[in-house]
Amino acid sequence: MSTDRRRSTANLAAGLLLAALAALVGSCGSEAPAQRPNLLLVVFDTTRADHLSTYGYGRETSPTVDALGARGLVCEQVWSQASLTPVSASSFLTGAYPYRTGVRSLYMVGREELSSEVVTLAELLSDEGWSTAGFVSAPPMGARYGLDRGFQTWNDDTRKGARARAAMGLGNEYQRRADDTADLALEWLDGAVGEDRPFALMVHFFDSHDATLVPPREFLAPRVSFDLPGDLDQRGHLREVRRDEDRIELYDAEIAFQDAQLARLIAALDRAGRADDTLVCLIADHGEGLGQHDFWTHGLLWGEQLHVPWVMAGPGLPAGARLAQRVRLVDLFPTVVELLGVDLPDGLAPDGRSILPLLNGTVPDEPAEVYAEAHHAPNDGQGRDTRLYSLTAGKWKYVHRPDGENHELYDLEQDPGETRNLFTPDQPVARALRAELERRGAVRGVEGSTEHLDADTIEMLRELGYL
Description:
One of its GO terms (molecular function) is arylsulfatase activity. By secondary structure, the protein is α/β, with parallel strands linked by helices.
């Protein structure tokens, strides 16, 4: 372990000790146990970690996330289990890998939903007495994949919030702008903060996914250098933006707009006096290509599409800490459960692991292995491989294509950008990682399909850019 890493671990351990002592002192002399912490989980869709100022990005895209990290923990190397929303969400909401959740393709609507053999975070917290609610901004995060399980209040009907905008030409009816979703969440939160039981609120923002529904002119104008159309606030979209630099400016502005809505949620906690007893977590479901590896969007397994932010602050966490070790979104479930003081039910064994032992140095300083997968429909028009599986262990990342022989192997220490494929059929590391994928039963023989989809679902996927 390097000197810097030892110093970082020591500082984190000291911070955790101080947090534990403060909690112990605060409980002395009081017979009634303190109410268990609340949870605010905010999900930025399609948001790369390296486009947040929290992670060193040149533009100030995330002042609220920056402040959250300053009073809590920033995880620097966080990797998603998929770069499609329902597959990633099914994993981080259960702590299980996609090959166990039952949700493995965006396109299998109506044929795939969460397995009865996994337990969601909302189910567990509901059973333990939390008031739970989820507000999402687009169908890929919706109930059609079973992602509403355990939420006592759930709102994914984006048409209610988006129909009026669509009627005026503002985007489409299949997504809701972040401020509209935040309004609904704030209305629910206003009642929840006064209850005598803890609450768990998940809020999902979709703006950075595409240019279909953009921030209002007054927010956007100072953040882009290209000319905005005069009728922007009447039509709401910027689908005609084509230059790469303009598209990236727009992407960054949409992240900043989501960050502003996160600020509204945190401000509501402050006004209600609930900021100190609420665990606030900010994550993204996956990243975005932005032209790297000649691919602009997502759905593949390149690093830029899987590297995501994870920033959190609240009870039990040290302030101003940064975790450099590699962790995964599948680790969110067991980590949050531990921070909220909830015991896992007997027999429930998540694939993820709590990251808290990494902070106090009680486990070896070894990078977690990372599994990820992608399943697509062969007729989606995107030109992507229909099935991809990757396993990263140590410095090696192996990408498996069961439909062909163009497998990949990268040395991430020497080639973090994944530009030099070292795969050969007789490469021992590649053979070992492929054998591990097969041992897990991760590689399946069925690809995604659109043949069973109804007209409304096909329209939804087309409007969101998936067909």
